[in-house]
Specification:
Chain A is an alpha+beta fold. Chain A starts with 6 loop residues before the first strand and ends in a 42-residue tail after the last helix. The longest helix of chain B is centred in the last third of the chain and has 18 residues, at about 155-175.
Chain lengths: ~950, ~210
């Protein structure tokens, strides 16, 4: 009765006679004793000792395993080994054989790779082998279990270990592996369930799990991580874990076979009777009924429903293989149970509106997500039409990410569903699939629901993966609850919005400033720039102090790369343009960083300093500002300071110190003086002249000119100017005096000293010149006289000594008109040419050179002209050229040259006419030998010699040089 | 998954009072509004910490229907604690408590800790059994009482943990013979080998140590 409590479906299709009766034909009349399946075979063994292997296409291979009968068989699931127990003769010890089905002999009979006689003569009832082929257990009818360890295909000689006798025939066994290396053997008898730990080699401790037992074939091990050993009792299926009882499922009926297939439990049971006479069954009728009413039931344990049930005349075994179930009857009829595909199963479930079941099942079978979403949507639609909106939303939420949200939103747009809609939207955001409109909608929902707390919660928890368009959220929040908007903005670093809300909605300017202060530099710069106007309008002082802080941090940060983004004070200047004092104050905050200031910044600063200066009435403060500006100008870098700009500023503000400084700095002294003069600051001007007159002497002239024109010019300065002009000969005296004369203001008294000195000097010059003229005239006279004498009078050569060696002149001797006489050999030795007097040659040569050069120069007309242009005193230049005979005829010059030659031409006297032999030959040593003479007394040139009376009068060269006679003397 | 102790629980009470939901809420922390009838006995486990000791709770959730009574009774025996559940919106489930209690006392060991649970406390509007009544019943029979809601998970955790605490205290007092597995208490593998302070530590009779 409780059977009926589980939901029933039909998820299997049955195919009768799947093998086209091939198996029954093969088996014939013999009785099937054991069946098994695995590794692509169904295995049936009969009491004739034959084993039949059935392939998928129902090709049957038969081989003889035993002479008498096969009792038990187990085909390993994943290897080709088949283990059988059978007897060759009745009532002897049974033999265990291991066959390798993949190795065949010539008759294509599988090879028996192991044959072991079992140690007991009792009948074996159960056989159990692990898939790794290392453990094998055989249960006997008397309750003994023989445990074989080691590779079952090789270890032929290992003795089985006999486990504790249970006193009752073993009905079921199963190996279970826990944690990869712990092996347990579940054993069931007719009245107990126990477990042996067969991990260790020596002892196999037993734990009794329950005092109920089961029949043959009525136990199964469920594979899987949380697997159970299940036994079937008449009232229920009981499950056991390795250490205790597990759940139990109430399924009535006398169970014959328990089998596990995929996730399903297959129960073959005898119905207690036909439903019609179920109440009044007697023992006899029951027996007769049994034959026709054996039912097979497939249970989905996980989902708790019966997925197939049918009745059959008889069932020998149920074998899972090739992805479906095969039901074998005692007569060898094979039926196949094919599980329906998931889609048709789901269709069945949908028809019954069992969407939750469908989902569970689909998930179980790893259905693809798109299809699952589809189920959720159908489920949601179903619930929606049923009016269960919250339930529907729950399903729709599961579709988020795949299903278009508008599909769902559309359904819930009615205001009565707003709760559901909110839930959906919330989930939508949580999953990160929401767009702007969804956010807006959600926030509107919250505000419509008046659930500000929820909104707040949403905002607060949003950092946990809830993704939404923050800007939209803030926008919506702003309308309903500015606090939330603020919190949002702060959390998501929407600083600009945060400030905007603070300023526009709440007018909390100071707190906004404080907020900005907390931001990073870049952010704060950006924000403050955006809202600076508002700040300035409302909290100017705070703003200024904030800006100070901000900008100074920028200056102090050393990172140059960021400079582009940094807050430069000039970025904020425009805010303060109206308030110069503020601006000056602001900029002065950074006066430690002048070197980093930009030109425009500096200019602005100076400009506003000037404005402040202009407006300031207090003299002291004015001077402070003055000093400040000058200091800045002096300290500022050349690079950053645009002096011309400053000059313009200073000029427009008539700020003298700066102008003066800049002019001085730029060396524009004339401008400076003009500036001074324009201000009638004559002292300053003259001071400037004094200072820079040595660099630029024109300054004095400038000043002088001004003095001439300017009526106001204080005359007492004139003297200095004039002196300076005179000293440096800046202007000709003539010009100066003319200018002075023209001046209307200057009296003679002012310039008397100057004039006196000027004229005095002129007079002296004049006198000097006169003297010179006289002297030159005298010289000329003398020269003319000499020439005359040379031309007309006889010349007496009186020279007694050779002009070269200074010895007594001997013949032969050479005499020159210049009164020089030589020994001939001396002359030959000294003279370069025969015509020239060696003593006079250098002198004459010089003169000749000069004359020659003059002759050359006169060709250079151009040179003359250029010189004339350049010359300060052109007159003297022209006269010089006259002096060089520039304008004489060429022939005259040559004549002159010839004459001069005549003058120096030698007169060679032969020894005869003039032969006064006065001196002894040894005294005729040449000059060069003088140095070799050791005795000083013999030195003819030794003037101190006692024996030598030098007659000064006799020295022809003794005459004092007559300057006046030198025609070239004037031109030294 | 090592634990100091393993406590076996059983949840009993009339059908439909929310036994399975309590278990589901405790083990999976979820609520299933539509739940199939429990056929037989279901099973759940969770690790909790009592006084920093990890304790594994193994819970059998029994079917409430009279028809299954014979099967569920067999599960009483190995339980150290029982949650006796009634539905505060259904008076009859409260009225049946005595029967359940008698049944439990009869088939379980005498030391079993029984906690009385008034479930569905979220449905205050439909309440039929006052909280005071529950308290009175618990006082009268020496039970611990608590109202829970499997739907909102209100007090669910506490119900299981308080029971575990009580069992733990009883162990400390020596009331439970922890060596007898029939009491529903097992010493964890790590605990038994490492801790000698447990009285009678060499209880490993038949190789239950490897679980």
């Amino acid at each position: 009765m409780s059977f009926l409590e589980w939901r029933k479906f039909n998820f299997f299709d049955i195919i009768h006679d799947a093998d086209s009766k091939k198996i029954s034909q093969t088996i014939g009349s013999s009785k099937i004793t054991s069946t098994s399946s695995g590794h692509g075979h169904l295995v049936t063994c009969d009491d004739d000792g034959l084993v039949h292997l059935i392939t998928r296409t129902f090709q049957v291979t038969t081989f003889r395993a035993y002479q008498s009968a096969v009792l038990l068989s187990t085909q390993l699931q994943y290897s080709s080994f088949l283990v059988t127990i059978g007897e060759d003769e009745p009532d002897t010890n049974t033999i265990l054989k291991v066959w390798d089905l993949e190795r065949r002999d010539r008759q294509s009979t599988p090879i028996c790779i192991r044959s072991t006689k079992l140690p007991k003569s009792e009948k074996p009832t159960t056989l159990c082998v692990t898939d790794n082929r290392l453990l094998m257990a055989v249960g006997f009818v008397d309750g003994c279990i023989a445990l074989f360890k080691g590779d079952l295909s090789r270890d032929r000689n290992s003795k089985p270990k006999m486990l504790k006798e249970l006193g009752q025939g073993i009905t079921g066994m199963a190996f279970k592996c826990v944690n990869k290396d712990q092996w347990y053997l579940f054993v069931s008898t007719a009245s107990s369930v126990q477990q042996f730990n067969v991990t260790s080699k020596d002892s196999c401790p037993m734990t009794v799990l329950d005092a109920v037992g089961c029949d043959f074939k009525c136990s199964v091990l469920v594979n899987g991580p949380d697997s159970h050993f299940m036994i079937a009792k008449e009232d229920a299926i009981y499950c056991y874990t390795v250490d205790s009882r597990g759940p139990c499922y109430v399924v009535g009926g006398q169970k014959i076979i328990l089998q596990w297939f995929r996730n399903y439990l297959i129960i073959v049971s005898k119905e207690k009777g036909k439903p019609l006479n179920a109440i009044t069954v007697s023992t006899t009728t029951k027996l007769s009924d049994e034959i026709e009413s054996i039912s097979i039931t497939v249970l989905d344990i996980q989902n708790k429903f019966i997925i197939y049930t049918t009745t059959m005349p008889d069932i020998l075994s149920v074998l899972p293989e090739w992805g479906s179930l095969y039901i074998l009857t005692t007569k060898g009829c094979l039926s196949q149970l094919i599980e329906k595909d998931l889609q048709s199963k789901l269709t069945v479930l949908f028809k019954k509106n069992l969407y939750d079941v469908a989902v569970r099942m689909a998930k179980c079978q790893q259905y693809d997500s798109q299809a699952l979403i589809d189920i959720f949507r159908q489920y949601g639609d179903h619930l929606y039409t049923k009016g269960d909106h919250s339930g529907a939303v729950e399903q729709y939420i599961k579709t988020i990410g795949k299903l278009e949200p508008s599909y769902v939103i559309k359904k819930f747009l009615d205001s009565q569903y707003i709760d559901s809609l909110t839930t959906y939207l919330h989930a939508l955001h949580k999953s990160g699939n929401a767009n702007k409109d969804h956010t807006t909608l959600l926030f509107n929902c919250y505000s419509k629901l008046n659930s500000l707390d929820k909104l707040q919660e949403f905002i607060v928890t949003k950092d946990e993966n809830i993704d939404f368009d923050v800007d939209v959220a803030i926008k919506v929040c702003r309308q309903s609850s500015p606090e939330n908007a603020l919190a949002l903005a702060e959390k998501h670093s929407r600083h600009s919005l945060y400030i905007k809300i603070l300023l526009e909605d709440r007018h909390e300017y100071t707190s906004a400033l404080e907020y900005i202060e907390k931001l990073s530099i870049e952010q704060s710069i950006q924000t403050i720039k955006q809202y600076s106007n508002i700040f300035m309008e409302n909290v100017p002082k705070d703003t200024v102090s904030f800006l100070k802080k901000l900008c100074s941090t920028c200056y102090t940060t050393t990172n140059v790369d960021l400079s582009g983004n940094l807050a430069q004070p000039e970025d904020f200047i425009y805010l303060l343009l109206d308030d110069s004092e503020c601006l000056v104050d602001f900029l002065e905050h950074f006066d430690n960083f002048f070197d980093k200031w930009s030109t425009s910044l500096l200019n602005t600063y100076i400009e506003h300093c000037l404005i402040v200066w202009k407006n300031e009435n207090n003299q002291e403060k004015r001077s402070i500002i003055e000093n400040k500006i000058v200091n800045i100008l002096q300290s500022a870098d050349i690079k950053t300071c645009d002096y011309y700009q400053v000059l313009i500023l200073a000029t427009s503000f008539e700020f003298k110190p700066a102008i003066v400084y800049i002019f001085e700095r730029n060396k524009q002294y004339s401008k400076l003086i003009r500036y001074y003069l324009s201000l009638y600051d004559y002292i300053g001007a003259i001071e400037c002249c004094r200072r820079y007159g040595h660099i630029e002497s024109k300054l004095w002239i400038l000043l002088f000119n001004t003095a001439m024109v300017d009526d106001m010019f204080p005359p007492f300065m004139l003297e200095e100017i004039l002196n300076e002009i005179e000293r440096k000969s800046l202007l000709s005296a003539h010009f100066t005096i003319t200018s002075l004369a023209k001046s209307k203001t200057i009296n003679i008294g002012h310039v008397r000293a100057y004039l006196t000195s000027l004229f005095g000097a002129e007079k002296k010059t004049l006198e000097k010149d006169k003297e010179m003229v006289d002297k030159y005239q005298k010289d000329t006279e003398t020269l003319k006289h000499t020439i005359e004498k040379l031309k007309n009078c006889a010349v007496v050569f009186q020279g007694l000594r050779c002009s070269a060696c200074n010895n007594q002149l001997e013949l032969p001797s050479v005499h020159f008109m210049c009164q020089h006489s030589y020994h001939q050999h001396c002359f030959q030795a000294f003279s370069e040419s025969d015509d020239d007097c060696p003593a006079c040659t250098p002198n004459n040569k010089q003169i000749m050179d000069i004359i020659r050069t003059q002759g050359q120069i006169k060709d250079y007309n151009e040179a003359f002209h250029s010189q004339l242009e350049r010359a300060t005193d052109s007159f003297s230049l022209i006269s010089e050229y006259f002096g060089r005979c520039l304008f004489d005829d060429l022939s005259t010059v040559e004549n002159q040259l010839a004459k001069s030659k005549l003058v120096s031409s030698p007169v060679v006297l032969s020894p005869k006419p003039v032969a006064p032999v006065v001196q002894t030959p040894p005294r005729l040593s040449p000059i060069l030998s003088v140095k070799t003479i050791q005795q000083p007394n013999t030195n003819p040139f030794d003037e101190d010699g006692e024996d030598m009376e030098y007659d000064d009068n006799k020295n022809p060269f003794n005459d004092e040089y007559d300057e006046s006679k030198n025609p070239f003397a004037d031109d030294s | 998954m090592s634990y100091a102790y393993l406590f076996k629980y059983i949840i009993i009470g009339d059908t439909g009072v929310g036994k399975s939901c309590l278990l589901l809420q405790f083990t999976d922390k979820r609520f299933q509004p539509v739940h199939d009838l429990t056929i037989g006995v279901e099973f759940g486990a969770r690790l909790v910490a009592i006084e920093t000791k990890p304790i594994k709770l193994q819970i059998w959730d029994t079917a409430g229907q009279e028809a299954f009574r014979s099967i569920t009774r067999s599960y009483y025996r190995g339980a150290a604690g029982a949650l006796l559940v009634y539905d505060i919106t259904r008076r009859d489930t409260f009225n049946h408590l005595t029967t359940w209690l008698e049944d439990a006392r009869q088939h379980s060991n005498s030391n079993m800790v029984i906690m009385l649970i008034g479930n569905k406390s979220d449905l205050e509007a439909k309440r039929e059994v006052k909280k005071e009544e529950g308290e009175a019943f618990a006082r009268e029979h020496g039970l611990v009482f608590m109202e829970t809601s499997a739907k909102t998970s209100d007090n669910v955790e506490e119900a299981f943990i308080n029971t575990a605490k009580e069992i733990y205290e009883k162990i400390q007092e020596g009331v439970f013979d922890i060596n007898n597995e029939a009491n529903g208490i097992k010493i964890g593998p790590q605990h038994s080998t490492g801790n000698n302070s447990i009285p009678g530590g060499n209880n490993r009779s038949n190789g239950n140590g490897c679980c």
